[in-house]
Amino acid sequence: MIGDIHRAIDAREVKMPLPLEFVVAGRPVSLQASSWGLRRWREQVGSAAQKYWIEAPINKSDIMVTILCFLDGARPDVDNIPKPILDALKGLVYDDDSLVSDLICRVRHISGDAQRVGNLPLLVRQSLGDLDEFLYVRLEVSPGLEAPF
Question: What is the helix (H) or strand (E) element at residue 69, kind and residue range?
């Protein structure tokens, strides 16, 4: 009984409005991948986001998206990673990806060094021990120009 309560209130299982954060297991598919591979990847990203998103798609407001990729092996071109992810969230989290005004995308090798960084989001720290390769996605209201650079 108590275990069921803890599982029900686990932050990874609670649907919430912005900020929204989730993890997608596996290696991200590049924008240059086959159309079949891109379609499967977009479905995987959309499915992961849908577990936590219960709101109607956002149709106004500037959105900041942060993508952290933790990979083992060859590093893909960082500029090819975000577009398929942003496309997967279109129509689910926001009406159009033109609402994304801020984008941060980082690729890191999944190693002991990454696991020793203490200021990583909780979902990242949990996933470092559970998954071989994964990406963490966070969407929030853009802080605007008054935010520090």
Answer: strand 63-71
Tokens matching residue 127:
């996933």
Q: Report the first-to-last Cα separation within the chain, whole angstroms.
A: 47
Q: Which two tokens stand for residue 10?
A: 């686990």
Count of beta carbons in the 10 Å neighbourhood of residue 88: 25
For the stretch 12-70, pLDDT in tens is 344 447 899 999 999 998 877 888 889 999 999 999 999 999 899 998 889 999 999 99
Alpha-carbon distances, residue 120 vs 30, 33, 40, 124 (angstroms): 24, 29, 28, 6
Cis amide leading into 19 (omega within 30): yes
Could you say which architecture CATH assigns to the domain 18-141?
Answer: 2-Layer Sandwich (3.30)
Contacts of 18 (CB under 8 A, 6+ apart): 58, 63, 139, 140, 141
Domain map (residue ranges) of the chain: 18-141
Question: Structure pTM?
Answer: 0.82
Please enumerate, as own/partner, the contacts of 114-121 that have beta carbons within 8 Å and a separation of 24 or more.
114/70, 121/21
